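User: Let's play a game. I give you a shape written as tokens, and you guess the letters that built it. Ready? Here's round one.
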């Protein structure tokens, strides 16, 4: 009897083998396992053991579950959940619930949650756990793949944001001043406005150059799509506020009109456009700081010459000289500022220069001082030094260790 030819399956881009029987897909990393799944399905079908109901796809179940699970929440909270769910649906939406493995959930985090905060990643993870918990309770799956140890997401960046350095502030004021993001960057740094407020701010409507103030009254909100919905309701009840128009920002905005930041076509900025604008701004800053685009770093004629000489020294066993030669290429300087660092820096500058706490609370748009003290009110080394000098002078009549006269 001739030997039966072994069937070979095709591979998907994610490395899994797959095959189809009628309307049922079988996938897995092991080819033989996939074939065995299909044969077991055929056996159950022949024996009449299959349920009359077909297991829904992740997309179909999620779209039905989300409005029920999030009933009664605010529009903003619901839209944020929609955006998180869309990440899951884009990745595994067409898979039946019963076929989702922990590795599928892990892949969603790896592909769709890079460079996000830890809190944002945790929010997505909790939503997916709740979704599959409901599917388990409804009898579609035996165990929740999102709760398995191998499905746990990576950690995002954590902690509060930081105040930028004096060097970074100088770079922001002097480099890439013609970039589309520059005006928004200056507004976040010197008015302490939130990124969502910068995206909605209209210079003609909000900036009073005669009185040197900003009347903040427009705010961008997620609406479940790629666009922002601009309303007069801010993140908090204290978001509508008046902020002083400091001279660096006044000089930046002087003579300008319309939206503070726009998409490339001049229309209101979208979610994707803002991401692209910021990535472009960071690239522009790094190019200006380092004198070249990052793709040319260590690839210019001068750098290649240095590296070639270092390699020659290394081949001669002169390792220390080789390292010294390589050190002639300056280290690449990354521009690591993120939007909320700018707002954080504004608060720190205010407090370092004696702005009263309650005034700072008002300018920042908070209800009380708790958030300022917990997150934004970073005690810089400059403020610590000033306060120490003030205490020394008040108690002992001395400053920096020197006696000062009573009349001074």
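Assistant: Ready! My guess for every position:
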């Amino acid at each position: 009897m001739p030997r039966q030819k072994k069937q070979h399956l095709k591979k998907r881009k994610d490395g899994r083998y797959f095959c189809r029987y009628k309307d049922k897909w079988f996938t897995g990393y092991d080819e033989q396992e996939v074939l065995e799944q299909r044969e077991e399905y055929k056996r159950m079908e022949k024996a009449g053991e299959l349920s009359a109901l077909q297991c829904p796809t992740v997309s179909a179940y999620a779209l039905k579950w989300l409005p029920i699970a999030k009933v009664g929440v605010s529009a903003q909270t619901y839209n944020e959940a929609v955006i998180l769910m869309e990440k899951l649906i884009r990745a595994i939406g067409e898979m039946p619930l019963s076929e989702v493995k922990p590795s599928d959930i892990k892949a969603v985090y790896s592909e769709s949650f890079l460079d996000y905060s830890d809190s944002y990643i945790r929010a997505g993870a909790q939503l997916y756990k709740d979704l599959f918990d409901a599917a388990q309770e409804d009898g579609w799956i035996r165990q929740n793949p999102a709760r398995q140890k191998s499905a746990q997401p990576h950690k995002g960046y954590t902690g509060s944001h930081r105040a930028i350095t004096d060097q970074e502030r100088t770079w922001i004021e002097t480099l890439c001043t013609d970039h589309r993001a520059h005006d928004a960057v200056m507004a976040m740094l010197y008015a302490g406005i939130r990124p969502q407020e910068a995206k909605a701010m209209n210079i003609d409507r909000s900036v009073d150059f005669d009185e040197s103030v900003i009347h903040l009254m427009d705010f961008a909100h997620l609406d479940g799509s790629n666009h922002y919905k601009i309303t007069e309701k801010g993140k908090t009840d204290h978001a509508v506020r008046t902020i002083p128009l400091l001279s660096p920002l006044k000089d930046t905005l002087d003579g300008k009109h319309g939206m503070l930041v726009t998409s490339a076509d001049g229309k209101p900025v979208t979610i994707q456009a803002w991401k692209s604008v910021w990535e472009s701004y960071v690239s522009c800053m790094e190019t200006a700081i380092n004198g070249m685009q990052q793709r040319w770093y260590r690839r210019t004629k001068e750098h290649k010459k240095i590296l070639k000489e270092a390699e020659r020294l290394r081949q001669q066993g002169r390792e220390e000289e080789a390292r010294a030669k390589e050190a002639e290429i300056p280290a690449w300087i990354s521009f690591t500022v993120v939007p909320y660092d700018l707002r954080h820096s504004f608060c720190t500058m205010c407090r370092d220069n004696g702005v009263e706490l309650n005034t700072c609370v008002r300018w920042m748009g908070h209800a009380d001082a708790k958030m300022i003290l917990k997150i934004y009110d970073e005690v810089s080394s400059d403020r610590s030094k000033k306060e120490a000098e003030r205490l020394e002078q008040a108690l002992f009549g001395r400053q920096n260790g020197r006696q000062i006269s009573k009349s001074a």
